[in-house]
Design brief:
Blueprint: H1 3-14, H2 20-27, E1 32-34, E2 39-41, H3 44-48, E3 54-55, H4 61-73, E4 78-81, H5 85-94, E5 99-101, E6 106-109, E7 121-126, H6 132-144, E8 148-152, H7 161-164, H8 167-171, E9 173-180, H9 186-193, E10 198-202, H10 214-221, E11 228-230, H11 236-257
Parallel strand pairs: 3-4, 7-8, 7-9, 9-10, 10-11
Antiparallel strand pairs: 1-2, 4-6, 5-6
C-alpha cells in the first residue's frame, strides 16, 4: 500500500465517491498481510520511501510468487533480489510483465513507472569484472529505486590509471558505490580522491586468503580514508538502498533551503 493509493482512497471517501466500508475493505491488510509463511509489510513504502524488497535466495518460486502478488496487489512496485534463472522462469510464468536482469539476479514488476527522485547520479564502480554480479545488483536496484545510475566497471587498483582517467565524471556524482573483492582497497582510493559519500561493498571474490570476502570487508572497515561506509559482503542491494536515502536526503535538504 503506497502513500498515493492511501490518499486516493481517503480522498474518494471525503468526496463521497466511495464508502467507509469500501475504504475499510481496501485498507484491511494494513499494516501487513499474513500469508502464514510470511508477513508482507504493506507500510514499508510509507515509512522508508521504498516498498518491501523480497530476498529470493532460499525461498521457493511458489513462496516468492505469493509474496510478490501481495506486494503488487497493494499497488507497489516489486523488486526481488537473488533470483536465479530457473526461479525467474517460473516466476515469469506466474506473473505477467515480470522483468529479469540476469547479471544482477534481480526480478522486477513495475505497477507505476519509476520516477527519478534523487538529487544527482549514483555511480557504481567495480574493481574487476569478477565483481560484476554484485555491482549490477547495486546498479539495477538503485535504478529501480528512482536514481539516475552511472556504471564504471573494471577500474581496480591493479591499474589505477583506469580510475583516475574518469575523475571528472565521478565528481559530478552524488553518491559512489564502490564494489571490490580481493583486498578491497578500491573504496579507500576513491574516498581519498573525491569529496562524495562512498559506500564500500566487499565481494566474496578472491583466492583462499580472501576468506570469502572477509579480507575485503576488514580492509574496507580499516580504511584510512575518512567517510567510507561499508555494507555486508556481496550486499549490492543494501548499498543501493543506502545510496538512495543519501541521494534523496540531499534533494530534500536543497528544497528545504530554497
Amino acid at each position: 500500500m503506497n502513500p498515493d493509493r492511501i490518499r486516493k482512497i481517503l480522498d474518494e471517501v471525503a468526496a463521497g465517491v466511495s464508502t467507509v466500508d469500501k475504504a475499510f475493505s481496501d485498507l484491511k491488510h494494513l499494516p501487513f498481510e499474513d500469508l502464514g509463511f510470511a508477513k508482507v509489510d504493506g507500510h514499508r513504502a510509507m515509512r522508508r520511501g521504498i516498498p518491501e524488497v523480497v530476498f529470493g535466495e532460499n525461498k521457493s518460486a511458489e513462496q516468492i510468487a505469493a509474496i510478490a502478488n501481495s506486494i503488487v496487489k497493494s499497488g507497489a512496485n516489486l523488486v526481488v533480489t537473488r533470483v536465479d534463472a530457473v526461479k525467474a522462469d517460473a516466476l515469469k510464468r506466474k506473473m505477467r510483465g515480470l522483468k529479469y536482469y540476469p547479471d544482477a539476479r534481480v526480478a522486477s514488476l513495475a505497477k507505476t513507472p519509476s520516477v527519478i527522485k534523487g538529487r544527482g547520479a549514483v555511480t557504481v564502480i567495480s574493481a574487476g569484472t569478477s565483481d560484476l554480479a554484485v555491482a549490477e545488483e547495486a546498479a539495477v536496484c538503485a535504478e529501480l529505486f528512482g536514481n539516475r545510475v552511472v556504471r564504471l566497471y573494471d577500474v581496480g587498483v591493479a591499474g589505477l590509471h583506469r580510475l583516475t582517467s574518469n575523475l571528472d565524471s565521478l565528481r559530478d556524482s552524488s553518491v559512489l558505490i564502490v564494489v571490490a573483492g580481493m583486498e578491497g582497497a578500491l573504496p579507500s582510493v576513491v574516498a581519498g580522491l573525491l569529496d562524495k559519500p562512498v559506500i564500500g561493498v566487499p565481494t566474496s571474490v578472491g583466492y583462499g586468503a580472501a576468506f570469502g570476502g572477509i579480507a575485503a570487508l576488514l580492509g574496507m572497515l580499516n580504511t584510512c580514508s575518512s567517510g567510507v561506509t561499508v555494507v555486508n559482503i556481496d550486499n549490492g542491494f543494501g548499498a543501493a538502498f543506502a545510496a538512495t536515502l543519501i541521494n534523496r536526503s540531499g534533494l530534500a535538504a536543497t528544497e528545504a533551503a530554497r
